[in-house]
Amino acid sequence: SELILRLLQAGVDPVLTDADALITRDPSPYIARYLPEAQVLVSSDHLSSTTAPNDDGLEIPERAAWSAWNIGYFYLSHTVLPTMQHWQEMCVQHPTLWDQNLFKDVLKIGGLHYK
């Protein structure tokens, strides 16, 4: 999380992945479809698609709300720096809790809304 904070502090809007993630094509056009409104784009661990067949849009939040958010691949706007600082604090305060669930909890507490 320290790298994330440093990137956001520098004004960077990073796309972050786990070391074992594989990106097969440039995600920039997909991310650009949701800018400037989107501040966080994250995948979920929902085991089935929540969208219609051949729909490459965002998941339908109401259908995937109970799934874990997969922070192994996500986009952040630098404007979410305070939120990510809070997430880091929560991870330190609760080292036995899953960082993915803490991420989701912090965003929901902060007034996360779906379009």
Whole-angstrom Rg:
14 Å
Share in β-strands? 5-15%
Supply the helix-strand structural class.
alpha+beta
Give the overall silhouette: globular
Strand order of the biggest β-sheet: 1-3-2
Number of helices: 5
Low-pLDDT residue spans: none
Span between N and C termini?
27 Å
What summary fits the major beta sheet?
3 strands, antiparallel
What is the mean pLDDT? 82
Question: Can you count the beta strands?
Answer: 3
Pattern of helices and strands:
HEHEHEHH
Describe the structure.
This protein is α+β, with helices and mostly antiparallel strands and 115 residues long. The chain is 36% helix and 14% strand. The chain is built from 5 helices and 3 strands; from the N terminus they run H-E-H-E-H-E-H-H. The protein has helices at 2-9, 28-32, 61-64, 81-93, 99-109, and strands spanning 15-17, 40-44, 69-76. Strands 1-3-2 form a 3-stranded antiparallel β-sheet, with helices on one face. Helix 1 (2-9) runs antiparallel to helix 4 and helix 4 crosses helix 5 (99-109). It is globular, with a radius of gyration of 14 Å. The model has no long low-confidence stretch (mean pLDDT 82).
